[in-house]
Amino acid sequence: MFVCRTEIHVSCKYFYKDMNYILICVAIVAGIVIIKKITGCLLRAVISAVLLLVLGYLYYASCR
């Protein structure tokens, strides 16, 4: 009886350890996806701002 309880306790211990590992892996993947989406939007916003500045400068320079 004692051996059976020990085996169940040990298997639960490893299950929770594996579950923690799985949650950490999911968190890392979710973090990478979120960061890629944010940097993608940021990169698009920066490129759009630079293009608008260049077009504004060209418009201003041609009208002078």
UniProtKB/TrEMBL annotation:
It comes from the Bacteria. The keyword Transmembrane applies. This is Uncharacterized protein. Keywords: Membrane, Transmembrane, Transmembrane helix. The chain crosses the membrane at residues 19-35, 42-60.
